Amino acid sequence: MHDNLPVPDIATLRIAVFAGMAEIAGRRHIELPWDGGTVADARRLVRAAYPALTALLDRSAFAVGSRYVGDDAAIVVGDDVAMIPPVSGG
């Protein structure tokens, strides 16, 4: 037995979702296993875990911290991440 081996920590990416995205997901935050990557990587994980979000996901912006970022932006464990769905209004 290997009782003395450390148990690896599984990091979590917590993404805030809003409006219709929150309704579809059934929650205000999506939590996914994460060991780092880019916004594009996060989109792929969200798409795989929540296929019903695909149509909105493809048109949504991502914010890390208080800044909108592109798909090539890095996301590290602990970042404050949000998916902002498309909005319309007048």
Q: Summarize this, please?
A:
With 90 residues, the protein is an alpha+beta fold. It is 24% helix and 28% strand.
Describe the structure.
This protein has 90 residues and is α+β, with helices and mostly antiparallel strands. The chain has three helices and seven strands, in the order βαββααββββ. The protein has helices at residues 19-25, 39-49, 54-57; strands spanning 12-16, 29-33, 37-38, 61-64, 67-69, 74-75, 81-84. A five-stranded mixed sheet has the order 2-1-7-4-5, covered by helices on one side. Strands 3-6 form a two-stranded antiparallel sheet. A hairpin with a 2-residue loop joins β4 (61-64) and β5 (67-69).
Detail the topology: elements first, then pairings:
Elements: E1 12-16, H1 19-25, E2 29-33, E3 37-38, H2 39-49, H3 54-57, E4 61-64, E5 67-69, E6 74-75, E7 81-84
Parallel strand pairs: 1-7
Antiparallel strand pairs: 1-2, 3-6, 4-5, 4-7
* Architecture (CATH level 2) name of one domain: Roll
Which class best fits the helix and strand makeup?
alpha+beta
CATH uppermost class of one domain: Alpha Beta
Largest sheet: 5 strands, mixed
CATH names the topology of one domain as: Ubiquitin-like (UB roll)
Cross-sheet strand order for the largest sheet: 2-1-7-4-5
How many strand segments? Answer: 7
> How many helices?
3
Percentage of helical residues? 10-25%
For the residues shown, what is the average pLDDT? 89
